[in-house]
Amino acid sequence: MVFAPAIMDCLTPEMEKIAEMEIGETPKVKKESLEKLKKRIEQEPDFYPFMDDKFLLMFLRCKKHDVQRAFKALRSYYLFKEKYSRVYTDFLPSELKHVMAANCYSSTHFRDVDGRLLAIFRVGDVILSSPKQPLTSPASIRNRWDLLQKMRKDFCKSWFKAYLSSLQTRKKWKDTQPNLKIGDIVLLLDDDHLPGSWPIGQVVELHHGTDRLVRVATIKSRNSLFKRNIHKLLLLCPYIRTNT
Question: Looking at the record's lineage, which domain of life comes first (predicted)?
Fold first, then answer.
């Protein structure tokens, strides 16, 4: 299995097949829609966007190569930049040092098995806290707490079903799946805790079954060692050996 890097200049053959199937993109469609979009831009007075093909393709793809809808999205993008110009001009990363220090966001250097970018958010109590509103009795406090807990559980359940489960697809009796390797970065599933507190670690030892397939792995996190069944591990970033 080959994982695509996070930053790419073009689509892989697998991604091209997905693009054709889901948004009808072919080399011919891409060329024609780019030409039509550029002509539409030229017809708009006092509008001079960045005309790079890769940039314009982002708007065409998100609108399934509907040129008129892509143009509206492009126009809205520049109106947003104008309205919130400070974010795009004078904003400095140093203004968000407290966010970076919280270590609540990170990303991998590789895409997942379907070519999607993988970002890791560690959502804490501050973001998940309920909106402030007047409290009139202990009962209302309890009701808000119950509601908050339900919202958190529902979100985690939906997130697991919609995305995390896709990282752990099992095609039994159809395709042979690659074994984990020493050095792989994985997420350890823990049914007793919220996903935001699940540890991330690196595979340091593999334990094979009688069929010579990896069944259990030893994972090293920042502070601990874990031994887990592979069904409780989600591959985030494969180990790539580099020649130096």
Answer: Eukaryota
Assigned architecture for domain 13-89: Orthogonal Bundle (1.10)
> CA–CA separation, 23 vs 62, rounded Å?
9
* pTM confidence score: 0.50
- pLDDT, tens only, 5-30: 778 888 888 888 888 999 999 999 99
Q: What H or E segment, with its residue span, contains residue 140?
A: helix 138-162
Closest alpha carbon to 134 in 148, 144, 122: 144
Three-class secondary structure of residue 78 per DSSP? helix
Q: Which fold has domain 103-129+177-243?
A: SH3 type barrels. (2.30.30)
Q: What's the half-sphere exposure (Cβ side, CA atoms, 13 Å) at 45?
A: 0
Q: Which of 180, 231, 173, 175 is nearest to 204 (CA)?
A: 180
- Would you give the end-to-end CA distance of the chain in angstroms? 22
CA distance 220 to 226: 6
What is the Cα–Cα distance from 191 to 197, expressed in whole angstroms? 11
